[in-house]
Write a structure and sequence with these properties.
The structure is a homodimer. The first copy, chain A, is an alpha/beta fold. Helices cover 25% and strands 26% of the residues of chain A. Chain A contains ten helices and 17 strands. In chain A, the strands form four sheets. In chain A, strands 3, 4, 5, 8, 9, 16 and 17 form a seven-stranded mixed beta sheet that branches. A six-stranded parallel beta sheet of chain A has the order 12-11-10-13-14-15, sandwiched between helices. In chain A, helix 4 (136-148) packs across helix 5 and helix 4 (136-148) crosses helix 9. The longest helix of chain A has 13 residues, at 136-148. The two termini of chain A are 21 Å apart. The interface between A and B is large, with 36 and 36 residues.
């Protein structure tokens, strides 16, 4: 099969051994995959990753569970052992023995095929296009915030970071009745986000006093800024895994009694429902779609500061036939 | 008056100008004061402190509010502006314009007299001795945890740090039905804590999987250890203001969706009630009591690793007359 393979350096292979379905799992033919900040981090050495990355996808079931065969699906990316306390508490995504699609112990979506258990797959309604469905994973990650904290709609909320994750988080918060302001560093991106109806401003112009801050900056500076902007007893949601930090001091979080809440993957069901209802339209965030064979260029492109979401198409051409 | 004065170096003065009551406030004659880790940090440069430190005290009202005159009192240490949103929400201790006894803009308890508003003072029942009442402030800080998170009593809880704060937090948690284990580094202290009926062990022997961890270590290592020991989706309460950190990385807090909650001062009422009911007896934590005139030695003593609480007596002799 065709695949993007990382062995310390990212390469495209057109003759990579086919991924086959693991015992009891489904084989999924990937239609579209999205490139996420975590993928870029993996290529920079995060988690000592090797193999096929990619965890945002929409695909078609071509093997396994007969009830799903031929269905268009998205898939939750964490596969737990199924028997530990966390799995039993419906928190498979925190199973200590989990594999994670394209991140940990499981080949990912930057390839023609991937394997996931049927229980991880959700059928995509016909009304949702491939280009929309592929956003299900990051949108689910944004909905996770609303499972962790309760919002009344009256809170002052800031999203730090004008990248793809910040934009998606802000779209989800807005769809659910909150009024977030995005604080970023790239005027051009902020202007594009404003065109989507989002409030967006340069981060340095934000004034302290926010009830909730969602840090999607992907850098330690984002958390430092959040600590400056949050009100006493406010909440910071940490969304992005920053690299090794230096000089981070949480004394102010103690003095001001701030809650810092780590937030990662979410359940797909609320995200898929929101997409089906048309509450969120992520398509304006697509900066480019490239064929999988141009995947190396696609990841380089996704790393550019002014780029939002880059999609990979598993077919050779992204143009309609 | 007599006072311990810090001007970059700590000195005892027997002829320091008397603290006088601020307009509308009460003048309190200090009977006992406690030395806290924050005091030691202030002497090391924290907050660029200058003046008279000390925020744990029991005293007698000698001026101001006639209803309180002659009463034995303890006092909440934060004095807010009284008119901002936080003050109106009964969160005077988070007022942005607050002064804080012996910490910020207000001379403290390491002296014969201090000034506090009547609303900050709570009368101490006769059943509570001076040596017990002086613990009201740190016990209130421990009760603050129970205002921030709800405990069922079934949680696995660890307290990191075998110092005075860790011991008080563990005593309070135990008094309120939880079963904390203290993780520390000093075998002798752990043995002393075990004699108080507390479960205590070397920190390196604790196994991961705690629902709640209270970091009272006063060091960055405590938070790093807490991040290793807490279960996915667990809670870390940050109690101590660690100094500048290096190498702290919160990626694991994101991946495991940990909540890190800063926790500082608490309301005195629950603490005083618990002391009045005899639910907590802090007296075994008193390592020494010295007269104020030996305050410089007392602070040195309090900085020794095997010492719990050191008290200062404002009278010249700590022995009964």
């Amino acid at each position: 099969m065709r695949a993007l393979v990382f062995d310390g350096r990212l390469k495209f292979s057109s003759e990579y051994p086919d991924t086959i379905a693991r015992p009891g799992e489904c084989l999924v033919e990937v239609l579209r995959a999205g490139i996420c900040g975590t993928d870029l981090e993996l290529m920079r050495g995060y988690m000592d990753f090797r193999g096929i990355a990619g965890h945002e996808f929409v695909g078609k079931v071509v093997g396994g569970d007969p009830g799903l065969l031929g269905k268009r699906v998205v898939g939750e990316i964490n596969v737990g052992c199924g028997s530990c306390d966390l799995c039993k508490a419906d928190l498979e995504r925190h199973c200590p023995n989990r594999t994670v699609l394209g991140i940990l112990g499981r080949a990912g979506a930057f390839a023609n095929y991937l394997s996931l258990p049927a229980r991880n797959l959700l059928e995509v309604p016909d009304s949702i296009s491939d280009e929309v469905a592929v956003f299900c994973e990051p949108i689910a990650a944004a909905y996770e915030i609303l499972e962790q904290i309760r919002l009344s709609g009256r809170e002052k909320i800031a999203v730090i970071g004008d990248g793809r994750l910040g934009a998606i988080v802000a779209l989800v918060l807005k769809a659910e009745g909150a009024c977030p302001v995005i604080g970023g560093h790239h005027l051009e991106k902020l202007q594009r986000l404003a065109k989507l109806g989002l409030e967006a401003d340069l981060a340095e112009k934000l004034k302290p006093g926010f009830d909730v801050i969602v840090d999607c900056s992907g850098s330690e500076e984002g958390l430092l800024l959040a600590l400056r902007l949050v009100r006493p007893r406010g909440t910071i949601i940490l969304k992005s895994t920053a690299k090794e930090s230096s000089g981070l001091n949480l004394a102010s979080a103690v003095v001001d009694e701030i809650s810092i809440i780590g937030s990662r993957c979410g359940r797909f069901a609320p995200a898929l429902a929101a997409l089906a209802e048309g509450k969120i339209d992520p398509r304006p965030l697509i900066s480019a779609m490239l064929p999988l064979s141009d995947g190396v260029s696609a990841l380089s492109l996704a790393a550019q500061p002014l780029i939002f979401k880059v999609l990979l198409s598993a077919v050779n051409s992204v143009l309609p036939a």
